[in-house]
């Protein structure tokens, strides 16, 4: 019997995808694929599902769990290309429960070879979904957990069903940030964790991702911002000194005042006034503007012209459109799915020259045409910048390489003077930021060890900041 679940003609299996499937199979069909963003994790997992289907003479019950609703639709397009007719289980159960039950019955009785459902992580964890899932013949069940790091959250990890024998997790960054318990739960459920890893450097070398230049820009705070920053840093120092275990995660989560102070300081850094000023100089220097992404902070800035505050994302769009003549629109959580699809289509065609986002382009949204990216704000979570970099480096027929501009805010000079606890705290903060920068730089064309004329190296532009905070070891 041939498999109903079969790859389409346009899928050309790459050697690294074959190795990923082989190592997952060798791991008793359980494990996590840690693959750089943009390297085809979706297709790789569906090739694994095809293998399972062939082993079981065409029979497979495939359950795909994804973090967001728009990814359900995106996955559905690829799953249909493999010949399946997936149930899309999200929103109200009234939309999916009846077709789920009908197809499950047909699968259990042999009336259909393949059962496929695509759901969100949150729906997957509900009692209603778990109840329906338990009625499916268990021998041939396979779970694909996209962006599997999310599944380590307390309300999700408790819903991971033991009865599913074949389990595959997908993520460029499967380790949960400051959550060893959640990471360990995922490793146990997926039989030891990562069974295959495909790094960014390998992906670039093999042509799965494009090459890139990485240019960091040091931004200084204004006097007013520096004063606020110092006040917040002092407050954070006082609050942290009362906590045992040096900002341990459990204590941090329970200390509301400390969390608020850290949040305010991060937002201040994300929306520093000098970032838009620097952007206003860099974009004209870029020359022909097209296929440009700008990542903003989620706070607000004060506009000198009106004296009123404006969201950073809106202020950035205004700067690009009114001051620089760039056809730019925002891409945020406030735009619905239809609006987002139209924005992406306009961007792909070149009708729209720039997309301005906060976090909505971090996971699962494909923008391969991107040639230039300006990262005005980043979280300290390494997952965010790993995913952003991979998203920017997706190959495209009209793209030879990408250019990434990264904006790094320098703490006030006064905090770099001395050797007390305030200096130590700021030094730790700068170290984390520079470690992120060096991770970005290590695979770039203009890495300090690379011989590329005319492109500023990441190392040279950061030496002063390293010296100020005694971080020349980085």
TrEMBL record:
Q: Which PROSITE patterns match?
A: HELICASE_ATP_BIND_1, HELICASE_CTER
Q: Which InterPro entries match?
A: ATP-dep_DNA_Helicase (IPR050615), Helicase/UvrB_N (IPR006935), Helicase_ATP-bd (IPR014001), Helicase_C-like (IPR001650), P-loop_NTPase (IPR027417)
Q: Provide the transmembrane region boundaries.
A: none
- Alphabetically list the UniProt keywords: ATP-binding, Helicase, Hydrolase, Nucleotide-binding
Domain Helicase C-terminal: where? 288-463
What Pfam families does this protein map onto? Helicase_C, ResIII
Which molecular-function annotations from GO does this UniProt entry contain?
ATP binding; catalytic activity, acting on DNA; helicase activity; hydrolase activity
Domain Helicase ATP-binding stretches: 22-192
**Descriptive protein name:** DEAD/DEAH box helicase family protein
Organism field:
Halolamina salina
